[in-house]
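Dear Dr. K.,

Following up on our conversation at the group meeting, I've run the structure prediction for FAD/NAD(P)-binding domain-containing protein from Winogradskyella damuponensis. I'm pasting the input sequence below exactly as I used it, so you can double-check it against your construct before we proceed with anything downstream. Let me know if the numbering doesn't match what you have in your notebook.
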Amino acid sequence: MKQIAIIGMGPRGLYALENLLLALSRIHKQVNIQIFDANNASGAGNVWNTRQPDSNWINITERALVGIEKRPKISYANRVIEAFPSYHEWCNFTQPCHKPDAFPPRNKLGKYLNERYKTIENALCNLNSFNFNKLEIENINLKDSQLEITSNNNSWICDDVLLTIGHQSTELSNQLKQWQSYVATHQSLSLFKESYPIHHLKTVKNQETINIGIRGFGLAMIDVMRYLTINDFGNFKVINNDTFETIYYKSKSQDLKLIPFSLDGLPLVPKPLNESIDSWYQPTKEELDSFKSEIEAVSHQTTETDTIDFLTHPIAKIISRVYLDLKSNGILHDLSSSELEAIILNWLNDDHYNHPLIQDSNSSTYQLIQNYIEMALGTIPISLDYCIGQVWRHCQPTLYKAFSHAKVTNDIIDKVIALDERSKRYSYGPPIESMQQVLSLVDADILTLNFVTDPDIDLTAKGWTLKNSNNKSITCSVMINSVLDAPKLLEVNTPLIKDLLQNDLIQPIHSKLGIETTADGYVITPEAKDDVPIAVLGRLAKGSVIGVDAILECFGPRIEDWAKAYVKRLNAN
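The predicted structure tokens came back this morning:
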């Protein structure tokens, strides 16, 4: 009996397992399935861990999770795995289009994913050819055309390996290395090199007097901010249910100061309030079909190109149409469609481009957040950059599908990914309530935005001293890194990935990106190697595929394509 190891049982691993069992059931074949994962909640993974606090929120609307569809009934190895409901069916989701979108805690989706996995394990638990191993795999080696995987001096031989291991830690930046060395000789200081799991921060929570620096100004910063301030001293209270206007009230005195900062200091942009407002930015089906065709005309051909005009020009056309249709909801102007397109292209090509239709990034950070909240509520005219970001979000699934495994140069792949990453300040933005909470903490004199833009940082005996352009300074004894590592394969420092690289079983598609794979997920190895039966789905394949960070991509066609390819290879042997 052929053996396959699935390493990593988060959402992608779960959907891969389901599709594997479905594909095998159709051809009435059975294989030995070994699953390896060190997490407590199989199916959920680290991001959706069921044990994380309620202060970690989803940043995708619950409405959008319609893409997590139900699993059909599966008959495999004389066992029946019952059908499992879609996410919306599971939580009895209903959402009138005029009501505010819901953004539940991440542990809620984690519970769904974990329950969905458990139904498989319970159905197959007495099957000798199905085993779950609560272990972290350290090595994979090619051995006589098979693969030997090892963990804690135990080893398994298998014919295929599927890696769905998600986010991996990378080598520390020079700045973090310097801080780490400094803290080692200054016991009164604390450095947290990662934000998650967030309960690791409990040692600095609930202290009466403390200044905490937060490196990064993105989604993880908001989780950190919420965790540290929903405490014994106070909490948030929404005082206007229509706008999510929030105050932070103190139940007893605390001298806490949070000091976030980033290279550009630009804030996250909240998503529209509800489905009705969000529909303002929705491209038509015809526009999305045309957008997809124009990208594929370049990405699926071997045509040489040295620009990403094939992406920016068609999306600028869609954005221009949407912005013209906003009419009274947008900033007043008398520009034609082609004139708007030119402005949009300028902004896409240059993030420092200024125009009266574009929000002035030189405004105070507090004012920027306030303006974007009002735009998300639909109560002030929409700036062009806000429109660009929301339309981009609606186009992302099409872009991810059309551009993955593109036959363009590595440089073009890098540019497309960089532009998509830049869009995420808008397209991956948080709920309005999160940004109202930021403002409420500023109002309560707990969070300061005075050092948010690339401050000078000096290490002193008392900690990190941040100095801004106005020569004001503040010192913090605790520093939390909330910047998530990019999936740069050559910088990943986990033993398994380093071992695969050293053994030439994987290679990066680009020095700045992830593992190079085929369209069905199998690794493309250096030329000296024969076909190696290792497949990679998810974040580590960034570059070969894009959009790897989105939860809905965990339940998409790439995983289905891998299962079909695996069964095809199985039949060929």
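Two things stood out to me. The domain at 174-267+431-481 is CATH 3.50.50 (FAD/NAD(P)-binding domain). The chain has three domains: 3-51+129-169+486-572, 174-267+431-481, 275-427.

Best regards,
J.T.
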